[in-house]
What we know:
Radius of gyration: 34 Å
Strand order of the largest sheet: 12-24-23-22-13-20-21
Mean pLDDT: 82
Number of strands: 24
Helix content: 40-55%
Number of helices: 24
Distance between the termini: 32 Å
Shape: elongated
Largest sheet: 7 strands, mixed
Amino acid sequence: MDCPTEEGQIRRALEGISGVRRLQFNLPARMLSVDAPESAKDSIIQELLNAGFKSEVLSAPLSAEQTAQAQRTELNRLIAALVVAILAEGVHFFAPDSLPWKGLGMGVAAIAIALSGLSVFKKGLGALLRWQLNINALMSVAVIGAFLIGQWPEAAMVMALYSLAELIEARSVDRARNAIAGLLALSPSQAEIQQPDGSWSALDAKLVPVGSLARVKPGERFALDGLVIAGNSAVDQSPVTGESVPVDKSPGDDVYAGTINQSGSLEFRITRPASDTVLARIIHAVEEAQSQRAPTQRFVDKFAAVYTPAVFVMALAVAVGTPLFLGWEWMTAIYKALVLLVIACPCALVISTPVTVVSGLAAAARRGILIKGGAYLEQARQLSMLGLDKTGTLTEGRPKLVFSKVLSTVSSESDVLSWARSLAERSDHPVSKAVVNGLANDAIEVQNFGAELGKGVHGSIGGVNYVLGNHRWIHERGQCSSELEAALREQELQGRTLSLFANDSEVLAVFAVADTTKESSRQAIAELKALGVQTVMLTGDNEATAAAIGREVGINEVRANLLPQDKQSWVAQMAEGHVVGMVGDGVNDSPSLAAASIGFSMGAAGTDTAKEAADVLIMNDDLRKVAETIRLSKRTHAILWQNITIALGIKAVFFVSAVFGNASMWMAVFADMGASLLVVFNGLRLLKASRV
Length: 692
């Protein structure tokens, strides 16, 4: 089952069974999920057999070795069929045209057809009994018809070539399907776990409970997700997030299954079971995305549903109409009609879209871009406007000390910074934490520490009272001179948050804290502009801060002081005339992510709510991946239409040649299967591109 025609055939066969509530098809994976009572299982399998399909229950799948052996057996059988078909051609060409030799040739041809075409006949007969036309029905009619009019060598050759080409095509398509499944191999099957007695031993990763302590040595891959407890190392996260540069890991940092430890040994606490690692969720999400049809795919499916019956009617008209109205010989007309039936196969057309879309989804996943459906992969190329949250998207989301200046002329700079750090260290406010992280001076013991809500903190050091507070508190204390106010205003215009350190008589130092922009943000905005996308910052932050960040990264428009519903309203309003995207990472971004044509969420830093609402996850939080998604979408769309043109162009040429020229049935098979292989390999080019 790998084309929509066969899906329709199975759907019609199973929908009439009592108890069947829902059918869910995943053509790229050749998988069918049936929501029905256990009692209906035997009836379902029997109906599949009646329709010509061999089913395999996934609860007992074949091993890799058994699958490989089955494929080798099938290949050997088809090669034998081709050899026998060539022998039939030889008997027809060299042997005398007498009954014994003719009978021998027909027998040899029948053997070739039986070796290669039994499954085709089963599916074809099942389709015809249900008044359906698919490739198996067309090939069955064509081969039987050719045999009956005396073209038995050609009938044998056509069936052998068709079945062999189908196998080659299936193997080619599997390359795209296996691109995602191959991610599973990135994660080791065993993890080194600490035992109750303190020793270390390797355990099956699927059996390791959450909370266990694991260890990974340099050069090894992480088998599970976890939180670093001990050690420092650089980790290559490219298999999961697409980052090209290794990321330094230390206690408190997250690590992911499938990534590679490079330098030092790390001990980490398991945070997710093997079935729920980031890598496992990526694979599951892309498999789900494969089952969703893209717009071009839906168009092709509808076209093929009309195209096949139309060609069948045309072939019937050639077989009956041309002898009656144009005086053609009956045998010639029937043969041309049979050639038309072979050419009518819509396989190349139908398979051109899913292979390309699956390749595109796999290529995106390899780059750390998780796209939840082919529709979003196709639509991304049409994005004309993009809303962007500020904190965590354009900026790091963590305030940092970006400016400090000691104003005291009495105390040394070192002493002032030590006092300020000592006071800030006692506070859990983000601004105070940023000051502590930004100063390297030693801390000193603080007495009489206290906090003033909305203002800052105070305490005494060495018998002297000090405060570390915001601009408003220092102003209320009457300690802001005109010169100091001018300096503070200059910092505030840059969107920075100020913290002033003072004693009872003067301001000793000024600290400016800001949420710094990501290194990639400016380049990301430039790439989006080059693609014709207008960028708009949507933030709940104040005007000054938003404007400063907007100028720094080169964004087109800034909208500040927005509530979550304000962001959603803007996205909904813009979506009326544009294909609008939204990029965010927080719970407050979820409504606007859901309202956008395509929502992008930061996959590492984003909240679960934002990830659920988004259509695309950027696993390494690099905004440049949005532009890369758009470029991949453009390339995927171009290859889709190249494939459609190839498939229909070859069909058109052979239609004319079949009716008015000398095209033969085996030539038609070569043309049809050649077109199928061309579109498959063209679609697979997406997997090979190192950059889009």
